[in-house]
Structures are given as C-alpha cells and as structure tokens.
Design goal:
Blueprint lengths: L1 E5 H11 L4 E4 L6 H7 L6 E4 L3 H13 L4 E6 H6 L1 H10 L5 E7 L13 H7 L3 E2 L4 H18 L3 E6 H4 L2 E5 L15 H4 L3 H22 L6 E3 L2 E9 H10 L3 E6 L1 E3 L3 H10 L2 E5 L5 H8 L8 H4 L7 H7 L26 H11 L3 E3 L24 H12 L7 E6 H17 L5 E6 L28 H7 L7 E4 L4 H12 L5 E6 L15 E2 L18 E4 L2 E4 L9 H5 L5 E2 L4
Parallel strand pairs: 2-3, 2-4, 4-5, 5-7, 6-7, 10-11, 10-13, 14-15, 15-16, 16-18, 17-18
Antiparallel strand pairs: 1-8, 6-12, 9-11, 19-22, 20-21
Length: 579
C-alpha cells in the first residue's frame, strides 16, 4: 500500500517492517518523531532514555540479547553518545543495531551546525543517507541486514528537510526474525586493551569489505543524462540538484561512508565537468580530491553554511534564476518567544530584576536570553550550566552570591545530576535552579523520569528531584521549591539562597501552560483609565500583551490568565480573570 509519510515516520515504519524489537532514544529535534511513531507499534519496545549515551548503551545491550535494536538522536546528541559509539564499532553486534542521527543544517532548533558524517569516518562505521521518505523506510530496513552481515553498528543519517518532509512510501508486512542466541565471547565483547587491540584488526578488515561493497551496492547509483555536466550528491542535496538541473547527469550516493571512489572516478570520466553538491562540510569533496578525482567545483560555489535549495544550487552554478514575487511590503519579524502563561517567564522576570549573572542551558527556557527579559548570559550544551557556574565562581568567588545556573527537569536527569555532584564534592557554593515544568517541553511534550509516565504512557516511578539533590549532598534546608507564578515568593527564595555559603537548589515548579490537564483562568482585564502607559508589564515579553495608543492591551485569544502582569502593575490597572 502506498501512502504519504513523514521522513521520520518512514524510518519508524522501516524499523517495524524489519522486525526491530527495541528502541531507546532521547528526544531531540529533528529526530524525535521516529521514536514517538515507533512507540505506536505494539511489537516494538520503545522508551525515552535519560540521555543519548544511555540510549545507545541500552540498544547495544538489546542487540547482544539477540534483538534488532535502534536508537535515534539529533547531531549534538551524538556527541553525548560518542563514547559508546566508538567502542561499539570494535565489539560489533549480535542482532542488527542501527544508530540514526538527524543533522540540522541552518540551525533551525540547535546550538550548532555540525556535520555527523565525520563520526562515521572517525568511528569506522558504515553510514547510509536517504533522500526521501521511501528511502528512509528502505534504508532503515536494509541497515539491519548490513549490520548483521558485517557485524557492525550502522549509522543512518537524515537532515531536517528529509526528517520533516513527506513523500510517498510503499509499506509491507512486518518480518519477525527470531531472537539470536547469545553466546559469551570475552574476546569480542569485553573491550579491555588486550582484546581491543585485536578487535581493531577486525574493524580495519571490515572496512576493506565495506569499501568493496560501496563499489557494487545499489545504495549508490549513476544517472546518466547530459554528459556536459555531472553532479555528485546525496540526501536532500540530491533532490535539489535533480530539481535545479533535471537534464544533468548525477551520481547519487546513498552510502556516504565508505564512499565508492572507483565508481565516482569512472563517472567523472564520463562527464565534461564534475561538481559536488553537499550541505555543511566538504565531506565528499575532500575525499574525492584526496583520491585524485578531478572536480570543477564544490564548496567554492555552495559555501559551508546553512541549507541548500533548488534556488541556491542554480545560483551557485551561475544558472538563470526563476522569477520571484514579493508582497510589496516588509513583514514584521517573528522571533521565538515563550508562550503566554509559560512558567519560565516569571522566573526570568525575577532574575532580570535581580540583575544576576545567569548560566543557561538547553530548553524552552533558553528564550530567557532574548529581549525584553534578557536574563541569560550563556548557553553551551545539555547540562553545562551547573558546571560553568561552578568554574566561574571558583575563579571569581565574589560572584557566587550574584550568579545562578538554570536547567530544566528533563535536562537535570539528562546531564545535570553529575554537575550538581561535582559542585558539592568540590566544595562549591553555587545556587542552581531546576525549572520543573512537568514535561520535556522544547521537543514537543515527551515524558521523562520526573513525570511518572513512560513513552507508552504507562505509569512509572516518579523520580524526585528533591531527593536526587539531597542524595547528591545538598543539605535538605538548602533545597527549596518556589512557584514562578508568584514573583514575590520567587524573589524572596532566591535572595535567601544566594546569601548562603553552601550549595543550594531552587526548584522552580509549575507545569507547562500547554499541558492538557492545566486549567487556565479567564484572560486578564485592563482598565484603560488606570493604565499609565509605563510599560512595566511589557518587560515580561508576554505575547498576549501589546502596547498601542500609549496604553497596554490584552489579546484575549492568547492570554491564559497567569497573572504575572497583574503583579507587575503598580497602578492596579490589570485585574485577574476568573477561574
């Protein structure tokens, strides 16, 4: 049966059809929907792991147990999983193991624009890259076969445009391979030095076999048309080339590592000029130039930054551009903003008022850095805020009472706990804030160990943030819970904790305003007669408030009656709505 399917959903369908039994991931855009859709199949055990390293290690364990296993993550999540990834290449697999990484050219929802193809080369693992939803399904299935044939984890790379675009796929029934028996094998699975040195030999022998496969497999194909110009492309870039230059010859690469160098050299001999079109780094171009393949151009034309498109490819090649239409007026920008009623807004309003140095982290609350709140100084990576604050105050101890770190509940579980332990152990005096909004918010409301529900919405033990902090060595009296919807309470609690000469934790606890069970009040009411136009409430950055005609007005379609603006008005011009 044929149907339109999102690229991520197609990967999940490929897992189902291949008989995958185990999926463990940590949510990260643009990969999140793969695991969410996989969880809809009863035949697949699917879970949200604490972080990407845990997810990959769990998948390795399931593979050794004899089940086809899978994990998905975004590109920066692969950094977290890199430790087990490199050694998993050495120990190999029992049943098939597929690691999907979704890159984010143009940085739609990430903190960098790294190219994950380098990981395949560095870890000596085969990598497949689909160019549409049909290939997402097919390559996911065939990756398991490749994994079992060559005793290796296999990487599957997508990018935002493939993950979140729809195209036709043809579905098939599930094939359920039997569990493979597990046999103890110390010389394969125990990666101690004496074993690893021998396994490295196996890895290099495997790479030679994979290089030979690349020269014959149908993942890579030659499409001969006009021989005056030829292109080498993979993934989304292939689609752009085909649409921009439909008459040109193209060598489509589906296995991006190892590359089919001999076939590409033969293709180059058939065309007058050969160009490599790829997003991000010159991964393919560098390999071909090193192999002595003559190229007419590559990154010198397309550049190293952002996503490509049909338009950008034609422009890079100096071809005529299609006519464009404009609206005749400049539209206002639409920067990202915290939702109306977001529990993080109250906390950052307080942090801004107190003029604290704020070490930030990855989550919805990263938006605390933007105007008008402007209450964040740094963002590096998941779980970094606690550690950066510790290092900062170790060098500038006088700043300890004027600085805090923030991170969310899911991020605290992901990689914040170790930072807190490190601070306590090394006699730090940091005040850190856990923003507990009862969900993993930024990636679209996924459960996490603090919510009391699994990915499949099965009740589970609810991990207590307070008890974790106490177990990490924070004194019970220095673990405080405050409501960010009460600005006065949050201000008082923060001031009290910042005075202490010991590590302290403030848990800013209020559920995300978008959760279905959260009951909102009616919109606030503004008395235009009392409004002085001071714009104190506008400093909250709430999208439900606007300023016009020297007065503040409320958008009833957005306001959820959180009451923060009521607390900021010194003239009683704003009244709370009824429940």
């Amino acid at each position: 049966m044929k149907e339109l399917m999102l690229g991520n959903a197609a990967v999940a369908r490929g897992l189902y059809e291949a008989g995958c039994r185990f999926v463990s991931s940590y949510p990260g855009t643009p990969s999140t929907e793969i695991t969410e859709v996989a969880a809809d199949y009863d035949e697949i055990y699917a879970e949200w792991a604490a972080n990407e390293k845990v997810a990959l290690e769990s998948a390795v364990g399931a593979s050794l147990a004899g089940a086809r296993s899978f994990t998905a993550m975004k590109h920066v999540g692969l950094n977290v999983a890199a430790d087990p990834l490199f050694t998993a290449s050495y120990i190999g697999v029992n049943a098939g193991l597929v690691v999907c990484v979704a890159d984010d050219p143009a940085i739609h929802s990430s903190q960098n624009e790294q190219d994950s193809r380098h990981y395949a080369e560095a870890a000596k693992l085969p990598m497949l890259e689909p160019a549409d939803s049909a290939e997402c399904l097919d390559f996911a299935k065939r990756a398991f076969e490749l994994s079992e044939t060559y005793d290796t984890p296999v990487m599957l790379r997508t990018v935002t445009r493939i993950a979140h675009s729809q195209s036709l796929v043809e579905t098939s029934p599930r094939v359920e391979p039997p569990l493979r028996p597990y046999a103890k094998d110390v010389q394969k699975y125990v990666a101690m030095p004496a074993v690893a040195v021998k396994r490295h030999v196996v890895v290099e022998e495997r790479m030679e076999k994979l290089r030979a496969l690349a020269e014959t497999c149908d993942f890579n194909r030659e499409e001969m048309r006009d021989s005056s110009v030829g292109f080498v492309a993979s993934g989304a870039a292939y689609q752009y080339v085909r649409e921009a230059f439909p008459q040109a010859s193209v060598f489509k690469i589906g296995m991006v590592y190892p590359l089919p160098v001999q076939r590409l050299r033969a293709f180059a001999a058939k065309v007058d000029r050969l160009y490599v079109i790829e997003e991000l780094d010159p991964f393919i171009e560098t390999a071909l130039r090193a192999a002595g393949v003559a190229l007419a151009g590559g990154k010198d034309r397309t550049g190293l930054l952002g996503e490509l498109s049909q338009y950008r490819v034609r422009k890079a090649m100096g071809a005529s551009l299609p006519p464009t239409k404009t609206l005749g007026e400049n539209l206002p920008g639409r920067p990202p903003v915290m939702c109306a009623g977001c529990p993080h807004r109250g906390l950052f309003a307080v942090l801004s008022r107190l003029k604290l140095t704020v070490f930030g982290d990855i989550g919805c609350y990263t938006l605390g850095a933007v105007a008008p709140l402007s209450a964040m100084d740094t963002t590096l990576c998941m779980g970094a805020s606690f550690n950066m604050l510790h290092g900062y105050t170790a060098i500038r101890p006088e700043e300890a009472k004027k600085s805090v770190a923030v991170l969310g509940d899911s991020t605290f579980i992901h990689s914040g706990i170790t930072g807190l332990v490190n601070t306590v152990y090394n006699l730090g005096v940091s005040t850190v804030i856990v923003l507990d909004n009862a969900i993993t918010g930024m990636t679209g409301h996924q459960q996490n160990p603090t919510t009391g529900m699994t990915l499949k919405n099965v009740p589970a033990p609810k991990i207590s943030i307070e008890k974790l902090c106490e177990a990490a060595g924070v004194a019970p009296e220095n673990i405080r819970v405050a409501d960010p919807g009460d600005l006065a309470e949050m201000t008082r609690v923060l001031r009290e904790e910042l005075k202490k000469d010991a590590p302290s934790v403030v848990i800013s606890r209020r559920p995300c305003a978008l959760l279905k069970y959260v009951r909102h009040k009616k919109p606030v009411r503004i008395d235009p007669e009392k409004c002085r136009g001071c714009r104190a409430c506008m400093k909250l950055g709430c999208p439900a408030l606007r300023f016009a005609e020297r007065k503040v007005w409320v958008d009833d379609t957005q306001c959820v009656g959180c009451g923060l603006c009521v607390q900021t008005c010194g003239f009683g011009a704003i009244e709370e709505g009824e429940a």
